[in-house]
Amino acid sequence: MGAFERLRTLFGRRPELPFDLDNPDLNVVAEAFDPAEADSAVLARSPRLKADEKAVLRHHLVLPAASVERARELLAQDGWELRVVEEGDPVRLHALRAQVITALSCAQERSRMAGLAQRLGGDALGWDCLQT
After folding, report:
1. Is residue 115 part of a domain?
2. Residue-wise pLDDT tens digits, 21-33
């Protein structure tokens, strides 16, 4: 590390490294598949969640095959990656994004995924959170 980089780390923010969504060390630390349970309660009962560290928020979706590309386009606008888990009609999917997890962000994104799935003729089954 050069002198400039050392000064920047002392007096400024460190540049963020890309988060590896495929890191094999990622494990589920919280999950919410009951729509009646508050996201804050899910996070509060998770002893393994490191609240101040980035995690992968992963939403489980089921969409008609004809809607997958439209969902991918819409989600990509906000940095979500949509992956096929199981082919067929309907298609089982994961929407993934790395972020710091909060009860508010989980609730907002759960609502967003439910609305998106409903508009596209599918369903949002729930979410889980993965960290190393």
Report:
1. yes
2. 999 999 999 999 9
Reading the block at residue 109, the tokens are 């994104």
**28-34-39-41 Cα dihedral, nearest 10 degrees:** -90
Least Cα distance to 105 among 61, 62, 65, 51 occurs for: 51
| 70: containing domain | 19-131
The amino acid sitting at 94 is H
Query: Average pLDDT, stretch 45-58?
Result: 94
Q: State the total domains in the chain.
A: 1
Helix or strand or coil: residue 98?
Answer: strand
Question: What is the domain-level CATH number for residue 95?
Answer: 3.30.70.970
* Measured distance CA(93)–CA(85) in Å, rounded: 5
Tell me, yes or no, whether 67 lies in a domain: yes
**Does residue 8 belong to any structural domain of this protein?**
no
Treating both helix axes as pointing N-terminal to C-terminal, what angle do 68-76 and 103-119 enclose, rounded to 10 degrees? Answer: 150
- Whole-model pTM: value is 0.85
pLDDT band at 19 (very low <50, low <70, confident <90, very high): confident
